[in-house]
Design brief:
single chain, about 100 residues, Recoverin, domain 1, 5 helices, metal-binding, EF_hand_dom
Amino acid sequence: MTDLENSCETIVNIFHQYSVRTDDFDTLSFNEFNRLVKEQFPNWLGRVNDPEFITNTFRSVDKNKDKQVDFGEFVNLLIPLIKATHDHLHERHHNH
């Protein structure tokens, strides 16, 4: 598989590592989402000073308000993170 295909598979696998822990095996409860964010995005969280960040993020990602984050909702969360990573890499590159 290509690097991008491997990256896509990794995203799916990480989502399922957390989603299978309780309730619906293909969605993230708040607790599963909280754990995923804390364990998989520690560097991002280190820059956030808002104690309600994870709760507010969960609410904004849960578009259908079913108190679960499905894979599509999770992917929508990743889009701005991937874009911010892209921008950060360009910024670092231009500052050298």
